[in-house]
Amino acid sequence: MVKIWIAIFVSMIWLGAVGCAEQKAAPAPSQRQVQSDSDRFFDKMKQDEQEHGTGRELGK
Q1: What stretch of H or E contains 43?
Q2: Where are the domains of the chain?
Q3: Dist. CA 42–CA 46, nearest whole Å
Q4: Which of the residues 19, 33, 42, 47 could staple to 29 if both were Cys, CB 3.0 to 4.6 A apart?
């Protein structure tokens, strides 16, 4: 019975140490990636406007 409690205690300490470990931050995206993502988003936004019309056109 004591072995079970020791195993539980050790497991809790190990999980606490692993759970609190500092995670590495993701590297910042390159300028090329940012430009590519923004171009793709802008093109998608323009396409959506052409397909659905703008809010100003619907209000007329």
Answers
A1: helix 31-52
A2: 1-21+29-55
A3: 6
A4: 33
Would you say the pTM of this structure is higher than 0.70? no
Tell which residue, 22, 41, 17, has the closest CA to residue 9: 17
CA of 32: how far to CAs of 40, 50, 58, in Å? Answer: 12, 27, 36
Residue appearing with tokens 């990636």: 33
Structure-block tokens of residue 34: 């940012």
Tell me which DSSP letter residue 55 carries: H
* Interatomic CA distance for residues 25 and 34, integer angstroms: 18
For residue range 23-57, list pLDDT tens digits in order. 778 889 999 999 999 999 999 999 999 988 766 55
